[in-house]
Protein: Ubiquitin carboxyl-terminal hydrolase
Amino acid sequence: MSDSGNWCLIESDPGVFSGLIKGIGVNGVQVEEIYSIDRETLEDLKPVHGLIFLFKWQGRDPAASGKLAPIEYDNPDVFFAQQVINNACATQAILSILLNSATIDLGEELTNFKSFVSDFPAELKGHAISNSDVIRTVHNSFARSDPFVNDMHDPSSKESEDLFHFIAYTPINGNLYELDGLQEGPRNHGPCPGDSWLDQVGPIIQERMDRYAGGEIRFNLMAVVDDRINVYESKMAEYQSQLKALQEKEGSDGLEIGSWLRSEIENMKGDIQKEQEKRTKQARENKLRRHNFVPLIYEILKGLAQEGKLSTLIDEGKGRAKAELENAKARKQAQGSTATGEDEDVDMYAD
Structure:
């Protein structure tokens, strides 16, 4: 894998991913974070086009070799691109879902890109993604303006334990596929007629998480779904149509079914308002991500130092931190903690 090549790290955040999809020109879909992989949770988000899974990359896992689904090579019905550059895995996971969907409106840019690379081998598809000015520019527009965190470490480096990786799960032509750009090809997890893939994917992801030590909780799962406002508006229009038909037939909407329809219409209005508020918040957060606050912080600290207030504030901060750590240590001791080494660490950080 080559170096970062001007591809920056982006956050695992549904607002970022939704903005990235929109920035590429794709219409009618967004990304939602999910906290459970049970069928009921996924049912509420239908239609679900695919799942994006984030986990700590730990290289090839020999213990999992017997459990891995087979790799398919050169399947013309599956768009698969190998990841040839660091920091691009989030965007590649998103593209793996978008470019394998038969129902998503890709927009002009991505439609042309898919057509152009359709006959390329997987490695060349990866190079095409990394060299796409449009895709790279949109990806980098969501990079955090953080001078202290610039590039993801190379997986072969000594610090690879801090490397996190995105992969995608999506149904293609009646089969559930795992699309991981660090693999040689897509993994076929078997037939999934209809939307049964939502039942099949949960145990697969759970098994993957179970390979890690019990203390590892840094996983993230997001779903690419239809635009929620469009979904709510469509449901509301359907309920309104049913209510109108009921009123014309019965001459009144006072029946129990009429009350239920009116209640659902109000629920849809509330859901639309919540979604609009969420998008406003996400847009603000995305704007703040792009802003570099370091110069402002520097000037504030410089001003405090010139006024002779900085050292006092630092001492006060140290005092509060030490008090909080001592309180934490006392709570642990009250709970019967005997972790001497842990207590020594607390003292060390309190100095």
Notes: Confidence is low (pLDDT under 50) at residues 148-161, 337-351. Strands lie at 29-33, 48-56, 164-172, 175-179, 187-191, 220-226.
